């Protein structure tokens, strides 16, 4: 069973890694219903590429056992810093008094 799981994981990694960044961008836009003007599309694509590179680099560390958790692409992958919710930007909200 462990060998089967490892082979399945390897096939998945190869399948994901064979997609070009452009193919991943197209899939991302479809999955998250993104429609941008040509200028904004180019800007968002640059953000997406940086995010994908960070995720891929982290997941390589995960595969080598250097970190204990993996990352994935989500709805925030093409967002500008100021568009992210506060907790993703490191904002610490004050505790509310009861």
Describe this structure in words.
The structure is a single chain. The protein is an all-alpha fold. It has a single domain (20-88), classed as Helix Hairpins (Orthogonal Bundle). It is 54% helix and 0% strand. It contains 3 helices and no strands. The chain is flat, with a radius of gyration of 17 Å. The chain starts with a helix and ends in a 35-residue tail after the last helix. The mean pLDDT is 83.
Strand and helix map with partners:
Layout: H1 2-17, H2 21-31, H3 38-63
Summarize this structure briefly.
This protein has 98 residues and is mainly α. The protein has 3 helices and no strands. Residues 1-18 form the signal peptide.
Question: What key attributes describe this structure?
Answer:
98 residues; mainly alpha; Helix Hairpins; Prot_inhib_I29
Q: What is the level-2 CATH architecture name?
A: Orthogonal Bundle
Q: What would you report as the Rg, rounded to the nearest angstrom?
A: 17 Å
Shape: flat
Per CATH, what is the topology? Helix Hairpins
Note the quaternary state here. Answer: single chain
Query: Span between N and C termini?
Result: 52 Å
Mean residue pLDDT: 83
How many strand elements? Answer: 0
């Amino acid at each position: 069973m462990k060998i089967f799981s490892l082979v399945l994981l390897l096939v998945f990694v190869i399948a994901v890694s064979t997609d070009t960044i452009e193919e991943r961008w197209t899939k991302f836009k479809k999955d998250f219903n993104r429609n941008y003007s040509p200028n904004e599309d180019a800007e968002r694509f640059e953000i997406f590429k940086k995010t994908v590179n960070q995720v891929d680099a982290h997941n390589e560390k995960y595969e080598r056992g250097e970190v204990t958790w993996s990352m994935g692409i989500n709805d925030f992958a093409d967002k500008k810093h100021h568009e992210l919710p506060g907790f993703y930007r490191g904002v610490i909200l004050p505790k509310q008094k009861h």
